[in-house]
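Q: Okay, next protein. This is Glycogen synthesis protein GlgS from Escherichia coli. I've checked the sequence twice, so it should be correct. Can you predict the 3D structure?
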Amino acid sequence: MDHSLNSLNNFDFLARSFARMHAEVARSIFWPLLVTWMKNIEPGFAHVMPGIANR
């Protein structure tokens, strides 16, 4: 029983680590693209949302 619990804890640790690494990679790839996209698209919406253009 102790061996099964230890294996389950190891699996849980690995699953959480993988999820955390996946989230970090997704954020590090996505954020620069989002910033670039917003810089390029924002002026096009200046006439619709005037408060955003002056930030």
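A: Here is a summary of the prediction. The helical segments are 2-41, 50-53. The radius of gyration is 21 Å.
Q: Noted. On to the next one.
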